[in-house]
Amino acid sequence: MNFQIFKKSLTGRKKFIWLALLLLVVGFSVWRVLAKKEAKPQLQTALVERGMIISSVSASGQVLSVNIMSANTKASGIVKEVYVQDGDYVQKGDKIMEIDLDFQGEQKNSQAWSSYLGAKNSLALAEANQYSLQAEMFSKWDAFKELAESDIYEDTDSANRNLPEFHIPQKEWLAAEAKYKNQEAEIAQAKTALNSAWLTYVQTSPVITAPTNGVITSLMFIEGMSIGSLDTGSTTSNQKVATIKTEGMPIISVNLSEIDVSKVDLAQKATITLDSITDKTFTGKVAGVDRIGETSSNVTQYPAIIQFDSSSAEILPNMTVTANIVIDRKDNVLLVPSGAIQTQDGQSFVKVLQDGEVQLVGVETGLISDNQTEIISGLEEGEMIVIGNNFSSSQQNNGQSPFGGGMGGMMRMAH
Fold first, then answer.
1. CA-based torsion, 363, 367, 373, 379: positive or negative
2. What is the pTM of this model?
3. What is the pLDDT along the chain (415 residues), one digit of tens a residue?
4. At a CB cut-off of 8 Å and minimum separation 6, what does 228 contact?
5. What is the distance between the alpha carbons of residues 206 and 96, in angstroms, rounded to a whole number?
6. Residue 70: beta bridge partners?
7. Do 305 and 28 meet the contact criterion of CB atoms below 8 Å apart?
């Protein structure tokens, strides 16, 4: 009885072992099939197409403070009245605001007025001296002229003209003429001093006026506010009241790298984007390139100036910008994704899919954009190319190099 039970138990174990072995073999077979499917390359392809390619250089920078003039004052006191507001158009000399001067402000204004009157008197005196010098010059000229036309000195070749009696009146006339001409320079200097004194008086005046034609911006004062400049030693600093925006296109400054600066030239077009204005793209052109450059932390950058083709009230000084400068552009050329280009030993290659086989094709490339490359020779429109190295793992397992005669040894060079 026990033997029968043992025999049945042994038979059951054999069946279990055989079933386990069968499942193991089936599982291994399925794993090999799936592994082969996973090892099969998944090729990403694209067609060789014709189109336009634009090669550009990207650089970042900021908007410069251009076409803007400040209305400043050296006056101090309390704002009495404001005549304009942001957005108003003013002409040179129009009132912006008026100030009730404090003691310090009145003192500065009085000193400036006194300096102006002194400069005005100096100019009048210089002009009066000029009349005296002019009269003296004419008098000396008449005396010399009368002497030169006399019987003794009339002959220009006469030896008498070498005598002191002749040279002294001549030199006196030339000296008088030199004094008169020098006085003209004195008058010019006095006029400049008068203008400077007037501008100083205007800066200390209780009435602040527009220094140029334009639109008022950044007006930061209202009636009742205190305004005043600080004295530091013998210097007095100006205080900005408002800015006036004049007509003109915005200008940006961007920094070019050592690699890109040689590609950029004057009048090249550029597209400009601003971080703060995300829904608009502006255009402009290169107006200047600093080819000396500036080095900081062992990095050399070359500033370039780009002027906008159009203006916008949204563009403000110091905003961050990115400019793409167009270096070259071509139309109706063969194009492939840049990811399809491979290079070895200075030669460029592309993988072409033809009749289910992948072959390397040597190509000659041209312009390169952000994501496309121009093909000058080696490919034809409509050919199917492979992007990336999707099949390289199987080649490496076979000990083949993608540039060493693999893929059936098929190779086609550019012609």
1. negative
2. 0.61
3. 554 544 455 465 666 666 666 667 666 666 665 655 555 556 788 899 999 998 899 999 999 988 889 999 999 999 999 999 999 999 999 999 999 999 999 999 999 999 999 999 999 999 999 999 999 999 889 888 878 777 776 666 667 677 777 778 888 889 989 999 999 999 999 999 999 999 999 999 999 999 999 999 999 899 999 998 555 444 456 889 999 998 889 999 999 999 999 999 999 999 999 999 988 999 999 999 999 999 988 899 999 999 999 988 889 899 999 999 999 988 999 999 988 898 888 899 999 988 888 888 999 998 888 788 999 998 999 999 998 764 443 343 344 444 444 443 345 555 5
4. 75, 76, 77, 102, 104, 105, 239
5. 11
6. 243
7. no
Q: d(Cα 36, Cα 30) in Å, to the nearest integer? A: 10
Q: Residues 267, 309: contact at Cβ < 8 Å? A: no
Residues 6+ apart with CB under 8 A from 377: 363, 364, 414, 415
- Which residue, among 415, 131, 370, has the nearest Cα to 271 in the 3D structure? 370
